[in-house]
Specification:
The complex is a heterodimer of chains A (774) and B (194). Chain A is mainly α and 774 residues long. Chain A is built from 26 helices and two strands. In chain B, the strands form two sheets. Chain B has a two-stranded antiparallel sheet. In chain B, strands 3-4 form a two-stranded antiparallel ribbon. The chains are: A mainly alpha (774), B mainly alpha (194).
Chain lengths: 774, 194
């Protein structure tokens, strides 16, 4: 196996190497280094029509200039993706070195190669960075932001983001100015404002770098959200400081009025950004209300509205990042209630894909730009910058924690503080901001660039590489891998209500009180507007419960539990057959009996529930269903279906041969429900029909006295011509049965139970559900 | 400071209260003020109607249970002492307090907090959260929006998950175990005062 991986890797390197000369030769002017070498073929021809001599019709011609720009862009994207592939082929290296480091190294190599070839390597143009590379990452982060920990720790996060960044900026800027004034450093021409500008840019913790590193170390949720939230929210501060100092660097001094205006500007920038994002988010949610007939373009609305939010914020120099986060966070609960399962999957995958590629490209370009850019190395400046960054961060974190801990219920320990301080990584945003500076105003731009690149390299390489062993060494709590049980969910809600009540008794308007108020407002007004149909009323607990059931259904089917159902055997025997074949990967429920129950439920629900599985927001490489329990509504039909199924079980309970004692009625029901032969035609109490055909099909029909509708399962190969996809319509049984794709192709008993779930219309393809479920 | 002293004098057994609950004098005074606010008829004790007058509790799904938790079985009134003792459950835990093995566990310890919640679930007071208890709790939390069958299946699932000894009910130990990953200190604490 080792040889195989090695050979694959070598082949892959060869492929990449062959791409490089092409890419090098084609290093594009549009990337920023600006040399136009495109001769004009076309005009020459048209101008000489008069003396156009006839030559042979060109069968094959080479016209590279035409496709140059898109070709180069595609090459770079391909390169980034291949790099990503490559790193995961060599497991050992990726355990030690975080991916971002490897990517920067690759970028350095590529930059070096390009220089060798003689071309000018492209430098990361700020326009491309800010308009094309950064938004997908931020949108991905914002859309999947875990709201509960975020809002619980909002105060702490804001403190770190605002006060921490301000402190960093002024400390670094000020001390650097002092250092510059020292004799013998030859930097006396650096004025205070330039230093402060540099300080403000360098002090911002970068979300891209934090995401890249923290994602791999699986740290506990609290620390992750603290550092990550800080990196997102400090954008507002950075934007304001940057523009403030840039404006006034030409003037040369700042008055008190300007400082006051700066504070006002900060408030405008941050709240303005959030407002813009929220408005677009609501628009997008509202639009998704009407998309039930055009399911295929649903994801597009989410993306376009979010991108517009970002751009609109940039128009007014508001914080684009905060706009994007606000848009994603506002949009998500409502849009997800409205769109189809496939659209949800599409959004999820596209976001992850784009952000992955973006991140890779950013790091590679950082490497390339290092080689490409002009540098001006000044030992004192650079070294002092690095040291000051570290010192400022540590002091800032310690100082702020002292204040914050007075207000927190769960205090931050020293270990936490260390990780927070150590996780303050700088990244490409700082680099791009410096790159944007006007050379005329800032004569020392190259020195800044050199310094910032050194800081970035230091934080990403040194801190990025050592954070993982440090986390292990300090035994910092890791992310909990186990699923959230329904018990936790119920009790957490119960506690929420309890605490709200106690707060009311004490007359204390605390966290719970306001959260409760917001929830009520949301339920009463907002959900009615933005969510279509009946789903607006579904309580959170039900949605969570459905989600869990569905998840387990998928898992059980994946583990092959479904295919092991016996054929043509009486109930008792089949039940016993099911027992030893319980899914070995049963994770959540320890008891044997549950396995059986879940098998059953799974099979039945596999086609039933289009409950969307959530993603863990932190993990980018594997898509694991996540336990986020933000309220989103489920379909009314599901509820009714469950009702129907329970009715079956009530009826079939009588039929079940008594099971071993610890069975609850549910299990008995479930067992029976799983048995394909148990289902007869009209009434489940009737005799068992053996199933013919290679692929056993499960016919499920609910007994009519109990249920208003009965569900009819149709053989998979009978194509139903009118597979109309309708949002929330409850169709009476006798009509259409829809085909529902299941997650895996190897699911033998294809049940198709009637569903009224929204699906993209045209082709009744197998649904591509979570293929990466571990 | 004179007014606070006089308030303190009015409260019986203040020192004992402070000792037992861990509240500071400032907390006690604030709670006393609140108690007096609720006790509109100035009787020195509270009855269920006083609690019912609190607007927030009326719309709280488990409001009646919360009120019930203040009144020990058989009693119709709550005096200040009991009031503070119950509220002491919601004080944030102090990790700084030295643990003396001889003294009883503080009211706001994790176990006692969990016990409080457990008692709120266990209406019939049989020491276990039976299916009926859970059904009632879920019904009140989910209000009108679910069907009986859904409730049943949720309850079944819940008990299955938590029930380790197979008695179809959740005992305190099982309850505690099912919540071991939840940060109870954080979830069950209120900041009474700075």
């Amino acid at each position: 196996m080792d040889r195989l991986t090695r050979t694959t890797f070598i082949l892959f390197l060869v492929l990449v190497a062959s791409l490089l000369p092409l890419g090098g030769h084609a290093s594009s002017p549009e990337m920023g280094s600006g040399n136009e070498k495109v001769p004009d073929h076309g005009n020459g021809d048209t101008g000489h029509k008069a003396n156009y001599t006839k030559k042979a019709f060109p069968v094959l011609s080479f016209d590279y200039k035409n496709v140059r720009v898109p070709f180069e862009i595609s090459l770079w994207v391909l390169l980034a993706s291949l790099m990503k592939l490559g790193f995961h082929l060599i497991p050992r290296v990726s355990n030690i070195v975080p991916e971002s480091c490897l990517l920067i190294v690759v970028g350095l190599l590529i930059g070096g190669l390009i220089k060798l070839v003689g071309e000018d390597p492209p430098v990361l143009s700020s326009k491309i960075f800010f308009f094309y590379l950064l938004p997908p990452i931020i949108l991905d982060a914002g859309y999947f932001l875990p709201m509960r920990p975020f809002t619980e720790n909002l105060g702490t996060i804001l403190m770190f983001a605002v006060v921490g960044t301000l402190w960093n900026a002024f400390f670094i800027g000020g001390v650097l100015y002092g250092v510059c004034q020292l004799k013998g450093v030859h930097l006396e021409d650096m004025d205070l404002l330039s230093c402060l500008l540099f300080g403000s840019v360098v002090s911002a913790v970068d979300p891209v770098a934090v995401l890249a590193v923290f994602e791999e170390i699986h740290i506990n949720e609290l620390l992750h959200i603290l550092v990550f939230g800080e990196s997102l929210l400090n954008d507002a501060v950075t934007v304001v400081l940057y523009h403030l100092f840039e404006e006034f660097s030409s003037v040369g001094s700042i008055t008190v009025t300007d400082v006051f205006l700066g504070i006002v500007c900060f408030l405008v920038v941050s709240f303005g950004g959030i407002m813009v994002g929220a408005i677009y988010g609501i628009l997008s949610a509202f639009t998704s209300r009407f998309t039930s007939h055009t399911r295929v373009i649903e994801p597009l609305f989410v993306f376009v509205y979010s991108y517009l939010a970002y751009l609109s914020a940039e128009v007014f120099h508001l914080s684009g990042i905060m706009a994007l986060i606000a848009c994603g966070a506002v949009t998500r609960p409502y849009v997800e209630a409205n769109i189809s399962h496939k659209s949800h999957t599409t959004i999820k995958y596209f976001l992850k894909m784009w952000s992955s590629v973006s991140e890779t490209l950013i790091f590679i370009f950082l490497g390339v730009s290092t080689v490409a850019g002009k540098h001006s190395w000044n030992w004192t400046f650079v070294i002092s910058t690095v040291i000051l960054c570290l010192v400022a961060r540590v002091l800032g974190v310690i100082g702020l924690t002292l204040v914050i801990n007075k207000f927190r219920i769960v205090k931050l320990t020293t270990k936490d503080q260390f990780i927070i301080a150590y996780g303050g990584l700088r990244g490409a945003i700082a680099f791009s901001l410096i790159y944007l500076l006007d050379k005329d105003h800032f004569t020392r731009k190259e020195m800044f660039l050199t310094a910032i690149i050194t800081v970035i390299f230091f934080t990403v390489f040194v801190q990025g590489m050592t954070i993982r062993p440090l986390v292990d060494l300090l035994a910092v709590k890791k992310k909990q891998e186990t699923k959230r049980s329904i018990n936790e969910e119920i009790h957490t809600q119960f506690l929420d209500h309890l605490l709200t009540g106690i707060e009311d008794i004490c007359g204390h308007y605390g966290h719970h009180h306001w959260k409760d108020k917001l929830n009520r407002f949301n339920k009463k007004y907002v959900k009615k507007c933005l969510i279509v149909g009946e789903r607006s009323k579904e309580p959170q607990l039900i949605a969570f419960y459905h989600k869990m059931e569905f998840k387990q259904a998928i898992e059980l089917v994946e583990s092959g539990g479904a295919s092991k159902l016996p054929s043509a055997m009486p109930s008792t025997v089949s039940m016993q057959n099911i027992q030893p074949k319980k899914a070995t990967q049963e994770r959540a429920l320890p008891q044997v009996s549950k396995a059986r129950e879940e098998e059953i439920r799974k099979i039945l629900r596999t086609n039933l529930q289009k409950t969307r599985l959530r993603l863990r927001s932190y993990n980018r490489h594997t898509l694991v269903a996540d336990q986020d329990e933000d309220g989103w509504d489920d379909f009314l039909i599901k509820r009714n279906r469950i009702k129907d199924l329970e009715k079956i079980s009530h009826v079939t309970n009588h039929l079940t041969v008594p099971a071993p004692p610890p069975d609850s009625p549910t299990i008995a029901r479930a067992r029976l429900a799983s048995d394909p032969q148990a289902w007869g035609n009209k009434h489940v109490t009737e005799d068992i029909k053996p199933v013919t055909g290679g692929i056993p099909t499960i016919k499920v029909e609910l007994a009519s006295p109990q249920s208003p509708e009965s569900v009819c399962v149709v053989d998979e190969f009978k194509k139903d011509s009118n597979e109309q996809e309708d949002g929330l319509v409850m169709k009476p049984m006798s009509l259409v049965s829809k085909k529902d794709g299941t997650g895996e192709d190897d699911i033998e008993p294809q049940q198709r139970l009637q569903r009224c779930l929204s699906d993209p219309g045209p082709s009744a393809e197998e649904e591509e559900d979570e293929p990466f479920l571990p | 400071m004179g007014s606070t002293n006089s308030t303190l004098i009015k409260i019986p057994n203040v020192d004992e209260l402070i000792q037992e609950t861990g509240f500071s004098t400032a907390h006690i005074i604030r709670l006393h003020d609140r108690f007096k606010e609720l006790d509109k008829e100035r009787r020195g004790y509270l009855c269920p109607q006083d609690f019912g007058a609190i607007k927030g509790l009326a719309i709280n799904p488990i409001g009646d249970r919360i009120i019930g938790a203040f009144f020990s079985p058989g009693r119709e009134t709550v005096d200040f002492y009991t009031f503070v003792k119950i509220l002491a459950h919601f004080r944030p835990a102090d990790n700084s307090r030295p643990k003396e093995s001889s003294s009883p566990e503080p009211i706001n310890s994790r176990t006692n907090k969990l016990k409080f919640v457990f008692q709120m679930y266990d209406i019939d007071k049989d020491g276990k959260i039976s299916r009926i208890d859970l059904l009632k709790a879920l019904r009140s939390m989910l209000e009108m929006q679910v069907t009986e069958e859904q409730l049943d299946s949720i309850v079944d699932r819940t008990i299955q998950e938590a029930d380790l000894d197979g008695d179809d009910a959740i005992s305190f130990e099982e309850f505690r175990k099912s919540l071991e990953k939840v940060n109870i200190d954080h979830k069950m604490s209120i900041r009474f005062l700075r």
